Amino acid sequence: MQVKHLEITENMTINEFIKQLDESGVLGAGRIAHATNLLADSIKDPDTQVFLSLAGPMIPGGLRKIVRDLVANKQVDLIISSGANLTHDLVEAFGGNHYKSTGEDDEVLQDSGMGRIADIYTHADDFEVFEEEIQKIFADINQEYKQLSIQEFIYEIGLRIDDDESFIKMAAENNIPIFAPGIIDCMIGLQLWIYTQDHDFILSAAGDMTYLSDCVFKSKHVTACMLGGGLPKHYTLASNILTGGIDAGIQITLDRSEGGSLSGAPLEEAKSWAKAKKGSNLVTVIGDATVLFPLIVAGALDKIKI
């Protein structure tokens, strides 16, 4: 079959563009179309649960509202996130911002109270507000609870946020669980450690496993949508070993496979561990998730409307 070359036409819709990628069927274009169609089918199917994992700087990188809207519209059913993405959601919930790079030297940035994530800046003043506000939330939670699982803890934080653009708040309001197995490795974890130096409060990582396993067992089918790799990707896949693996998966990554890391591993490798079922529908899209995921979501939602 011949490659059908792309044609950009005036006033074409996002769905028409994705259809052309699908008809071309080659290289990155074909993978983007595959991921778009798979996400659309998964969102539409009432028997399929969509597990979204967030690694890397997805929230400071511009995806905060997209994730928030997917949660608010109940188009994802469960989130597994790095602690950093939760932290950056809260930074904005407390009035802070993320800023575009101006190309300053990193030592100059340090002197001016700025931190850098690639070409994204954060300001120390915003983190000072974060520290003050999160300590207040810890204290309020601690009035009711002496011990919580990580998922329960994030849920309680979400109930206490006054920002409708926060995906943590939207998840709490819509009863969509957020798991963050690496939450100690972020500013939330550091502030929690500081809080627990003179307060009686325990955060249980093992406490999440019963609820997460229940979510897996109750799901007829699971589609995992994984942005980046690392711990969130592994936690997403490993949790589904309990039922023989995910039924479908979308991975968007810039990592390579040669080093043997999970972040760069092709999804097909997950079949050998029963983290993905035999015959599962899997697609790995190589590229920047902050660019590709909005395109895939836009195409999927446009397809659903038709």
UniProtKB/TrEMBL annotation:
Native source organism of the sequence: Methanosphaera cuniculi
Annotated Pfam families: DS (PF01916)
GO cellular component, one term: cytoplasm
Keywords from the named record: Transferase
Superkingdom: Archaea
GO molecular function, one term: deoxyhypusine synthase activity
Name listed for the protein in its UniProt record: Deoxyhypusine synthase
Keyword Transferase: yes
Lineage, broadest ranks: Archaea, Methanobacteriati, Methanobacteriota, Methanomada group, Methanobacteria
Family: Belongs to the deoxyhypusine synthase family.
Presence of keyword Transferase: yes
